[in-house]
Known about the structure:
By secondary structure, the protein is an all-alpha fold. It contains twelve helices and no strands. The protein has one domain (about 60-270, about 290-309): MetI-like fold. The chain has helices at about 1-30, 35-40, 60-90, 95-110, 115-140, 145-155, 165-190, 190-200, 205-235, 235-240, 260-265, 275-309. The longest helix has about 35 residues, at about 275-309.
Amino acid sequence: xxxxxxxxxxxxxxxxxxxxxxxxxxxxxxxxxxxxxxxxxxxxxxxxxxxxxxxxxxxxxxxxxxxxxxxxxxxxxxxxxxxxxxxxxxxxxxxxxxxxxxxxxxxxxxxxxxxxxxxxxxxxxxxxxxxxxxxxxxxxxxxxxxxxxxxxxxxxxxxxxxxxxxxxxxxxxxxxxxxxxxxxxxxxxxxxxxxxxxxxxxxxxxxxxxxxxxxxxxxxxxxxxxxxxxxxxxxxxxxxxxxxxxxxxxxxxxxxxxxxxxxxxxxxxxxxxxxxxxxxxxxxxxxxxxxxxxxxxxxxxxxxxxxxx
Length: 309
């Protein structure tokens, strides 16, 4: 029918335009970062110095900061999001408490990131600073030469409060609703017949979750987790307010650092030198590429799991 053909063509055009938009963004980032490519080449990736005064730029500190904060946040998020998904999808499917809890999770997902940043700066950062002061005091009271004293000394603790740990904690709170909501929807769509068949064979609820629900909903749960990771990789304002914005390479999660997104937010409005501006845009390009690679890996993992099933 003519209506079906028009509808199919419309969908094809929209999908093509969407792909062209992504390609256009990618090409634009490449074009505007060309001065940086010509100046530094691929060494931009592993250089650790970022000094606009001397026109020395390298992206490694921000790549490391982005990956550290995102994956620590994902590690903290996973247990809570899985617990909420199974609780809402299997244990508490209806009623006032279910609606209240689900509404609260959806509200958390809708809160602007700047609000999370304010909360983290005024509530979370002072608590982390107290924890750092406790570790410093513990190091001073620890016997000299002991393994514990050497470990505490290796951390190089300075009581800033802001840092990678603060940013990761904020991100974990922000991404829990995304993973939990998608996980709950997937779990609730597991066919009731499969669960009733398992119960009829004498399986407990835990066994039904482990042997029936989780294998059936595994790919959807993983998709939610990778969606949350993508959200964490690109988060800007909340991270900018609590990470410390220090342009150095560090693996210590208690130290201030910077992410690719927070660097762009901080320096792009004030960048006037062409090399400085091009280097910031190249950081944005690598953020685009890192996000694409991680999402692609997530898709491949989910596809492989579905293929095995």
